[in-house]
C-alpha cells in the first residue's frame, strides 16, 4: 500500500502505533520523530504543578485515539494509486490545508472553491468526491477505546471529548462510533470556530465540562496538542495507537480501572 501522507490533526490522522523499540510509527510503518516519551504523563510548564495529583477526569481526542480515519479508503473505488498519492500530498492538492479549514468551520463547498483557486480544478473535483463519500473514510474504532471509557465510567472518572472535526462530517461520524456516546460531553472544533492547538479551545472545554484542570489529563496523538494542553495547565499523554499502554499509564497514576491483563477463566466483567 502506498505511503500515507502526514495528515496532521485530529480525525485527519492515519492509524498509528508503536514499534518494538518504542518509536512511533504511522499506518505505513514509517517512523515519526517525537521529543518526549509516548504514553508518559507529560506535565511541562503550567501543568508541572499538577504532576502527581489524583486524576478525576480524562479528556480524549477522537481521530487516532477513539476512531480510525483513512481518506484512502474513500478514493480506492474510483481513482488509481498514483492519483490518490498525489491528492493526499498537501503540496500538490492542498488536501490537508482544506481539512484544517473544515475543522475550523469552513464548509465543504468553501474548501472546494479554495482548492479550485489555489491548486486547480482536477483536485477540486477529487475533493468534491471525497467530501460526498466521507463516510467511507471512517473505517473503525481504535481497539480498546470503548472498553476503556466504560471502565472509566464505572470507576467514577469523568470521560470527555476534545477534537478537531468539521461540523457536518462529525454529524456523519457520530452514529458510527459508540465510544462518542459514552462520553459525558465533548467539544468539537467545527461547532466552535477554534481548533487545537489554540489555547482557547482547551479553556472552552475546561469551562464547559466544569472540571478542575489540576485533576485532569488529556489524551491526543499529536505532540503539538499535548504541548498546548500543558500550556493551559492540563497534564497530557501522547497516544500512539495502543490502548493497553494508555491503560497501564492510567493505572500507574492510581486511576482505579482494570489493568487489561485478564486471563482465561478470570471473572467476566
Structure, explained:
The structure is a single chain. The chain has 269 residues and is α/β, with parallel strands linked by helices. The protein is built from 13 helices and 11 strands. It has helices at residues 71-75, 81-87, 90-93, 95-103, 108-119, 121-132, 145-154, 167-173, 178-182, 189-192, 199-209, 223-231, 243-252, and strands spanning 17-18, 24-25, 31-32, 41-42, 57-60, 67-69, 138-141, 158-163, 186-188, 216-220, 235-238. A 6-stranded mixed sheet has the order 4-11-10-5-8-9. Helix 5 (108-119) runs antiparallel to helix 6. The longest helix is centred in the middle third of the chain and has 12 residues, at 108-119. It is globular, with a radius of gyration of 19 Å.
Number of strands: 11
- Shape by Cα distribution: globular
Largest beta sheet: strand ordering: 4-11-10-5-8-9
Which percent range describes the beta-strand content?
5-15%
* Largest sheet entry: 6 strands, mixed
Topology:
Layout: E1 17-18, E2 24-25, E3 31-32, E4 41-42, E5 57-60, E6 67-69, H1 71-75, H2 81-87, H3 90-93, H4 95-103, H5 108-119, H6 121-132, E7 138-141, H7 145-154, E8 158-163, H8 167-173, H9 178-182, E9 186-188, H10 189-192, H11 199-209, E10 216-220, H12 223-231, E11 235-238, H13 243-252
Parallel strand pairs: 5-8, 5-10, 8-9, 10-11
Antiparallel strand pairs: 1-2, 2-3, 4-11, 6-7
Helix pairs in contact: 4-5, 5-6
Amino acid at each position: 500500500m502506498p505511503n500515507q501522507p502526514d495528515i496532521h490533526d485530529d480525525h485527519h490522522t492515519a492509524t498509528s502505533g508503536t514499534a518494538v523499540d518504542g518509536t512511533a510509527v504511522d499506518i505505513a510503518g514509517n517512523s515519526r520523530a517525537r521529543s518526549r516519551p509516548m504514553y508518559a504523563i507529560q506535565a511541562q510548564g503550567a501543568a508541572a504543578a499538577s504532576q502527581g495529583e489524583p486524576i478525576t477526569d480524562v479528556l480524549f481526542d477522537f481521530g487516532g485515539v477513539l476512531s480510525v480515519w483513512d481518506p484512502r479508503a474513500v478514493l480506492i473505488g474510483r481513482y488509481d494509486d498514483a492519483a490518490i498519492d498525489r491528492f493526499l500530498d498537501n503540496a500538490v492538492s492542498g488536501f490537508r490545508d482544506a481539512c484544517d479549514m473544515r475543522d475550523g468551520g469552513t464548509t465543504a463547498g468553501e474548501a472546494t472553491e479554495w482548492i479550485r483557486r489555489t491548486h486547480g480544478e482536477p483536485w477540486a473535483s477529487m475533493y468534491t468526491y471525497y467530501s460526498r463519500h466521507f463516510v467511507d473514510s471512517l473505517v473503525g474504532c481504535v481497539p480498546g477505546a470503548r472498553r476503556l471509557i466504560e471502565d472509566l465510567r464505572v470507576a467514577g472518572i469523568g470521560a470527555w471529548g476534545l477534537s478537531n472535526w468539521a461540523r457536518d462530517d462529525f454529524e456523519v461520524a457520530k452514529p458510527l462510533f459508540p465510544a462518542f456516546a459514552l462520553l459525558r460531553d465533548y467539544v468539537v472544533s467545527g461547532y466552535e470556530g477554534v481548533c487545537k492547538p489554540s489555547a482557547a479551545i482547551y479553556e472552552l472545554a475546561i469551562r464547559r465540562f466544569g472540571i478542575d484542570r489540576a485533576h485532569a489529563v488529556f489524551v491526543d496523538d499529536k505532540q503539538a496538542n499535548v504541548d498546548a494542553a500543558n500550556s493551559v495547565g492540563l497534564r497530557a499523554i501522547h497516544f500512539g495507537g495502543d490502548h493497553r499502554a494508555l491503560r497501564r499509564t492510567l493505572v500507574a497514576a492510581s486511576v482505579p480501572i482494570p489493568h487489561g491483563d485478564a486471563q482465561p477463566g478470570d471473572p467476566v466483567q
